User: Fold this.
Amino acid sequence: MIVFYFAGINMNALIRNNLESTKSWDNWRGTFDEVKDYLIDAFQKGVLDFEASIKDEFLKSSLSEIVRYLCFPIPEKRGHKKNQLINGNQYELERFISMLSLLHLKARYNIIHN
Assistant:
């Protein structure tokens, strides 16, 4: 949803736009392991497309970091790195809620003081 709010397109569409049509989920008939490197490459390009839609450098870097954590195409590697290191739920969203809350406060501060 972060990508959609800022770029007007969802992350799956950005990945699909950067993925060879023969490797897309509509056409691919091989295994996930065979296509995952292509998905990761398309994801990285999609994140760059997302970043290009954000003018503010602070927002761009903060939001792209969050998107990389939440949308990484390999589910086992998705989630915040600290959650991945501990024995818990790597998909917990509490860290992201805190990151977005802090980002909101910083953005409000910048608007008020600039």
User: Anything to note?
Assistant: Residues 2-113 form one domain. The two ends are 28 Å apart (CA to CA). The longest helix spans residues 32-52.
